[in-house]
Write a structure and sequence with these properties.
This is Heparan-alpha-glucosaminide N-acetyltransferase domain-containing protein. Pfam families: HGSNAT_cat. By secondary structure, the chain is mainly alpha-helical. Helices cover 64% and strands 3% of the residues. It has a two-stranded antiparallel ribbon. The protein has a two-stranded antiparallel sheet with strand order 3-4. A hairpin with a 2-residue loop joins strand 3 and strand 4. Helix 11 packs across helix 13. The longest helix has 25 residues. It is globular.
């Protein structure tokens, strides 16, 4: 039986990616004045919440999109040039986003934020590095070899943490090999400022994060090459459950921790993403359900632009004083906390801001504007 639906554009992927962007903004801009719901806050260290699933899901979606983009492979030279150019642009955008708004108000008035105090690692930076490394792997290696590379990266990362971390603290924030490498490579001013010197997007954690991208790529190949989409979804279901089981089996020796991006964390998030993407494909491609599709595709077609806007616009709002707070903080505290005190008010504030970002995406979609690196 042939695949019943072969759309030129993989709508399910846009919906999947759009839902990820929606949750990413929701989590990143929790309303002030009250603590958000626990599932919308990253685990402090060991453990797992819904918020922890968002970034690896975006990496997975990127790998899935990569499999579709490579249906017509370029010659090696142009391919490498485009891969490296895109990676460099995304990395630079991430760096500039953390430097933004480039100035601050000091004792002597407005001054330039020093380059030495600007964070180098970050979300987009890890995305860029994973994109380049995964792009190099999938361009020249057969899918079976890619599976072996995934295993080698997960086991190799575990070995590095065990052998190069501080004895007795190999999985600790400051004793793990990743933190030691970041502090050797960069000055403290170039690292994350809010977690005691530990950077959750440090460079060593890129190695296991590449597996999230490769998993998305392999899932994309499975969807495209299978004769029956239902058979592909069955394989995704079994693979997803196997990854989740493997993550929990490994957990006693290697904890699940998003900030350290441990190998069991990769397996757990990959398993969940396989199930979520499979469910999305089943609903949209097989059952033909279209309710809410456009809402999420608006976000999914312009993820980079909307993410950058969401991060920078909230910074701009809080640069504008209103009472003793910035505009966003004032609205969150004096409006949403007055309407619904506590975590629900925080959620309402975040939802309202997320819808502002969605409106920007809607405008871009209506104008046919798509920002690509």
């Amino acid at each position: 039986m042939s695949d019943p639906v072969k759309p030129q554009r993989f709508v399910s992927l846009d919906v999947f990616r759009g839902g990820t962007i929606f949750l990413m903004i929701l989590v990143n801009t929790a309303g002030p004045g009250a603590r958000a719901y626990e599932q919308l806050i990253h685990a402090k260290w060991i453990g797992f919440t819904l918020a922890d699933l968002i970034f690896p899901t975006f990496l997975f979606a990127m790998g899935n999109a990569m499999s579709f983009a490579m249906r017509r492979p370029l010659p090696a030279g142009p391919y490498l040039a485009r891969l490296l150019r895109r990676g460099a642009i995304i990395f630079a955008l991430g760096f500039l986003m953390y430097w933004f708004p480039f100035v601050r108000h000091g004792d002597a008035g407005w001054e330039l934020i020093p380059f030495a105090q600007t964070r180098v690692p970050g979300v987009l930076q890890r995305l860029a590095l994973c994109y380049v490394l995964a792009g190099l792997i999938v361009r020249w290696l057969d899918w079976r070899v890619v599976l072996g590379v995934c295993g080698a990266l997960l086991l190799g990362y575990w070995a590095i943490l065990l052998h190069f971390g501080v004895p007795g603290d190999v999985f600790g924030k400051m004793g793990n090999a990743g933190t030691r490498f970041d502090m050797w490579l960069l000055s403290p001013g170039h690292l994350y400022k809010k977690d005691g010197g530990f950077d959750p997007e440090g460079f060593l954690g890129t190695l296991p994060a590449v597996v999230n991208v490769l998993a998305g790529y392999l899932a994309g190949l499975l969807i495209q090459r299978g004769n029956d989409l239902r058979d592909a979804l069955r394989v995704m279901l079994m693979a997803g459950l196997a990854c989740i089981a493997a993550a929990h089996a490994w957990e006693p020796w290697f904890p699940i921790a998003k900030k350290l991006w441990t190998s069991p964390f990769v397996l757990l998030t990959t398993g969940l993403d396989l199930l979520l993407l499979g469910w999305t494909i089943w609903i949209i491609e097989l059952r033909g359900k279209q309710g809410g599709v456009r809402f999420f595709t608006i976000l999914g077609r312009n993820p980079l632009a909307i993410y950058l806007f969401s991060e920078m616009f909230v910074t701009v709002l809080n640069m504008v004083p209103l009472g003793e707070d910035g505009v966003y903080d004032w609205v969150g505290i004096h409006l949403f906390q007055a309407i619904a005190p506590g975590a629900f008010g925080s959620l309402l504030c975040a939802l309202a801001y997320t819808m502002v970002c969605w409106a920007v995406g809607w405008w871009m979609d209506r104008k046919g504007l798509i920002l690509k690196a």
